[in-house]
Amino acid sequence: PVPGDAVTISVDTSRRNAIQRHHTVTHLLHWALHEVVSKEASQKGSFVGPDKLTFDFNSAPLTPAQLADIEKLVNERILENAGVSWTEVPYADVKSRKDVMQFFGDKYGDTVRVVQIGGGVGKLDGYSMELCGGTHTRATGEIGLFRIVGESAIAAGVRRIEAVAGLTAYDVMKGDRELIKTVAGKINSPIHELEKKIESLLAQQKALEKEVQIALQRNASNAASELLGSAQTVNSIPLITHNLGDANGDFLQAIADSLKGRFKGVVVLGGASAGAVALVASVSSDFTAKVQAGKIIQTIAPIIGGKGGGKPDNARGGGKDASKLDEALVAARNFIAK
Q1: 264-288: burial string, b at 16+ Cβ within 10 Å, e else
Q2: Which helix (H) or strand (E) holds 78?
Q3: Closest CA to 90 of 118, 59, 125, 114
Q4: Residues 41, 34: contact at Cβ < 8 Å?
């Protein structure tokens, strides 16, 4: 179009209303941060869309209690249904007012628009006042519901809150409710007893893990006893190498640990479980001057298509090619024989 042409414009009302809700609640969030966290929590950036809002600010990580207090405070102000108004004033009149939020460093014109929540229209006496040119609700009650859905770091000393309002917040709440119902159903528990049931299951899991650990140590001790009879001497160094077949790294380490009190020399063990190959090397203090566990693993792990390392007295590695495990253990023997 050119100057003088007649044009017809339209506004997506539902989209605009959603943006208004998120924009106005961003102002409430900024105010609540100052009330709950610190007056020094200054805005570093924001995004307002129809589906969500993000608010960036300088602060240490917020605690769950702080997030809960902020969310509650914002929802209290929404229920209060305070008026939201805006007025244009000379920038000189508000430039030095600390109660009117503004981005220092931004360039403002001679006339600015102040959006205020609460107080009298045009009186600049609201509890939240910011220089802003965006679209807003006419009252806080139009926002509906407010939910914080995330808080994280985006840079050193800068945090980001992600939140939703209105029907989007309702959808998030509905999703949370359905998830709770699903979890309750999976563990066969009424919702009001869900926390108690989860605590019971966690206690059972902890007990089972303890039993598994005891069984692991017992089996490892038995395996270590059997391996003692297979020790050889290579280059004046007692050596045990063995492929334990179906065994993971933790079991190999448990065997190596069990051998430490009963065998002085070098132990190199291998095993494969769940598609992963594991290696463990252990060298008693009497022989670390001659050979180091970390160097053994660094030498043999590439043979099984992996890598690893560790300390002179203990090291671990892993790979994917179980067919080369015996070759890797032979390489360990040859390494010690040099």
Answers
A1: ebbbbbbbbbeeebbbbbbbbeebe
A2: helix 64-80
A3: 114
A4: yes
Question: In sequence order, which ranges of 144-248 are alpha helices (DSSP H)?
Answer: 166-186, 194-228
* CATH 3.30.980.10, domain 13-185, yes or no: yes
Burial (CB < 10 A; 0-12, 13-18, 19+), residue 186, is exposed
Residue boundaries of the structural domains of the chain = 13-185, 219-337
Q: Could you tell me where the beta strands, DSSP code E, fall in the chain? A: 43-48, 53-58, 84-90, 111-117, 128-131, 146-155, 158-165, 232-234, 237-246, 266-273, 276-283, 307-310, 314-319
With beta carbons less than 8 A apart as the criterion, state whether 260 and 288 touch. Answer: no
**What is the SS3 assignment for 279?**
strand
pLDDT digits (tens, 9 = 90+) for 33-73: 999 999 999 899 999 999 999 999 999 999 999 999 999 99
What percentage of the chain exceeds 90 in pLDDT? 96
Per-residue pLDDT averaged across 119-124, rounded? 94
Tens-digit pLDDT profile for residues 173-195: 999 999 999 999 999 999 999 99
Measured CA to CA, the distance from residue 101 to residue 121 in angstroms comes to: 17
Helices (H), 229-305: 249-260, 293-300
The CATH-assigned architecture of domain 219-337 is Roll (3.10)
Kindly state the average pLDDT of the residues 211-227. Answer: 94
Written as one letter, the residue type at 64 is P
Cα–Cα distance between 139 and 148 in angstroms, integer?
20
